Every structure is written in C-alpha cells, then in structure tokens.
C-alpha cells in the first residue's frame, strides 16, 4: 500500500505526533456526529474507508444523503485554509464507491458538507460546501 499523503515523510505509524493528530481527528469526528444528531441528522456511517478514499461521516437528513468532511483545527480562523485543503476528488470517488455498494441510495438527493471545529467556538456547518451535480459526480 502506498504511504499516506497526510503522513510526513519519515514518520512512522507509531510516531507520537501522528497518533496525537489521529486522536484529535477522531474526537473532532465524534463532536461533529453529535452536532449533526442534535440537528436531527441520522448518522449512517462513520470513518467510511474505501479503496479510493475515506469519508468522515455519511448521514441522512430529510431524505437527502449527506457526505460530511470534518475539519478540526487547533486554532480559530483557519477555516478558509481548511476548506482549500478539502480533497474534493477523493470525496467524490469515495462517495461513488459507497453508492455502488449501496445502490438503493443512489437515487436520493445528495450533497457534500464540511464541518469546521475549533476550540472555544460552535461547530460551523457548511452545507453544500462544493458543487457536485449529478453530471459532474458521475464523470469524476
């Protein structure tokens, strides 16, 4: 398996900094899941790993399938930078894979959301964070 692009060169999987970053990310995903549940979303999958990428959360809300990327930051004000680093192609491919495995969901309306988390702030939920129309989605 090729090395993770998010892992710094030379960092081992047991590197304490890497483990701390993963724990921080997992906590962020848990907070985001609770936040969405409070907004009456139903969490369908968490940390969905596919051969083409990972989706942090998959949820249903009012008949819409929502693929959610969670961006947890240690400082406030890094949202714009975090949004620029959302790997849209990876999310699209992972969502395609998920829908191929769950064809009953393929006809539902869907969207891609991002939830930003930072200390001492409420989560910021960006609905429909990027355009993924059906035609673009199937061509990705």
How would you describe this structure in keywords?
single chain; 140 residues; alpha+beta; Trna Endonuclease, Chain: A, domain 1; 5 strands; 35% helix
Counted beta strands = 5
Number of helices: 4
Major beta-sheet overview:
5 strands, mixed
The main sheet orders its strands as 1-2-3-4-5
Helix content: 25-40%
Distance between the termini: 23 Å
Query: And the CATH topology?
Result: Trna Endonuclease, Chain: A, domain 1
Shape: globular
Count of domain modules: 1
Mean pLDDT over the residues: 82
Percentage of residues in DSSP E strands: 25-35%
Global structural class? alpha+beta
Notes on the protein architecture:
There is one protein chain. The protein is α+β, with helices and mostly antiparallel strands. The protein has one domain: 3-Layer(aba) Sandwich (Trna Endonuclease, Chain: A, domain 1), CATH 3.40.1350. Strands 1-2-3-4-5 form a five-stranded mixed beta sheet. A hairpin with a 2-residue loop joins β2 and β3. It is globular and about 40 Å long.
Topology summary:
Layout: H1 16-38, E1 42-50, E2 53-61, E3 64-72, H2 79-84, H3 88-101, E4 110-117, E5 124-126, H4 134-139
Parallel strand pairs: 3-4
Antiparallel strand pairs: 1-2, 2-3, 4-5
Summarize the structure.
This protein has 140 residues and is of the alpha+beta class.
